[in-house]
Amino acid sequence: MNIRNCNFERWAENHSPEHKDRIFRELYPYAIFSKINFSEDKLGVEQKIQFNGIEYYSIIQKIELQENNRYRTLFKLSSKPKSNTQSWKNRNWDDRFQIVYSQNFDFITVFTKNEDPSKDYIKRFYKGNFQKLVANKSIPLSDLLFRTLTSTLSEDLFGKGDYYKEFELLKNGHRKLPRFKDFKIKQSNFFNPIFSQGRKLWICHSFNEEKAHRIGFYNANQCDELYVIFCNPTYTKHHRCKYPNVHIMSIYEFVAKKSEEIELTYLKQIRFLQNHLNEQEEYSEQELLKEINNPKLDSYEIYKSELMEALAIMRINPNSENQLFHYLTSMNLLNAWIGKAKKEKKDKLFSDMYFFKSYLAKTIEKLVSKDNFGAKIYLEKNLAMIELNGFQFSFHHIKMSDELNEYMNSNLNQKIEWSGQRLQPISSLLFRYSKERRKPVANNV
């Protein structure tokens, strides 16, 4: 006999919102549990279940009627995906569970026999031990790690709050905002932000930037301040949520919000997430610098993971020399990639990516008005040259604000004689070099 109402919604009804393992239980394969026959005559019998093209195998190992007249049954569940695509889209299971249900086979709760594998994954994630995570990579696991990191950072930044607290979506909103015609409140009556402080602050997540803006449109009027954190940015800008007190930001920007120390603590984890649970190649700082000074190739490939990181950090305000250097190598990498894509006419939309220069202009404003971290800055018409650590970064078509014009016409604006080294062809080498320069600092945090 199958267990009735075996789903996370019923689990949530039977447990408090503050349950410490809520985030893990939400990921259980309830649809598979509901297809298992828990009759006593199935004890020790392997059951084969097919769901979404994947084969699952279950064996009931023990059925026990407890003193409270509830059944507690021990069973093992394993999955056998047929392709890498199935493995990526669906989490792999090879675990023993205990499920509790009434004599009428109404679902009450479920948990793993031993330590929940999700807890082990999270421990490994924070320690930077990714080998087992790579072997079991999937979208559900990626989402678990992303949500967990967002929760950790939320408490670091804002103090104590509630996790996954349920809020009723107010028809007229908590605050008045103009309604964007393409985004109306969904039929769902409730919403559970990852982190909240009443309706004063909500923090949500989305793996990609476009969906993050949709979440912003849907929920902007439900709280005083809303953060939606995304992992991977999009190449081009479509609908952008610009409501007051709504912050759509990359996980890089979010982690750097408080201090560079916190940013360095979690950079390895963020890069692992952004690279779809694949570890990035390690490089030698000395070998990179040697090849930068004597390139073996006319140009070097820019990896997608590098492009994603560069896009994700373009709104970060550098607060140290190393952070500024990495920021400049990132903007140089974007400049090089867009120029190459535009030249090869891969996609006309890529020309829209030059919007990064508006953020770059704001960063230059801060450098000339506050701390330049040892960088030399020269402005001429719409050209900006910045020299740091012996490298000269140049950017054309920079819109000159009043602050930049004031600097350009001052005695501080000293001309930089070009060294003759073109940085765009070696942009990926410089980017990797700047990453390696920050590693010793990160290891001492």
Distance between the termini: 55 Å
Q: Structural class of the secondary structure composition?
A: alpha+beta
Radius of gyration: 26 Å
Shape: elongated
Spatial strand order of the main sheet: 1-2-3-4-5
Number of helices: 16
- Give the strand content: 15-25%
Describe the main β-sheet briefly: 5 strands, antiparallel
Instruction: Tell me how many strands there are.
Output: 15
Point out poorly predicted stretches: 440-445
Number of domains: 3
| Average pLDDT score | 92
The residue fraction in helices comes out at 25-40%
Protein architecture, described:
The longest helix is centred in the C-terminal third of the chain and has 23 residues, at 321-343. The radius of gyration is 26 Å and the shape is elongated. The protein contains 16 helices and 15 strands. With 445 residues, it is α+β, with helices and mostly antiparallel strands. The strands form four sheets. Strands 1-2-3-4-5 form a five-stranded antiparallel β-sheet, with no helix packed on it.
Protein traits:
elongated; 16 helices; five-stranded antiparallel β-sheet; 3 domains; five-stranded mixed β-sheet; 15 strands; Trna Endonuclease, Chain: A, domain 1; 445 residues; alpha+beta; single chain
Walk me through the topology.
Elements: H1 8-13, H2 22-25, H3 30-33, E1 46-51, E2 54-65, E3 70-80, H4 84-89, E4 94-102, E5 107-112, H5 117-127, H6 131-135, H7 139-158, E6 162-163, E7 167-168, E8 190-191, E9 195-197, E10 201-208, H8 209-219, E11 225-232, E12 246-250, H9 251-255, H10 260-274, H11 285-293, H12 304-312, H13 321-343, H14 356-369, E13 376-380, E14 383-388, E15 391-395, H15 402-408, H16 427-443
Helix pairs in contact: 5-7, 10-16, 11-16, 12-13, 13-16
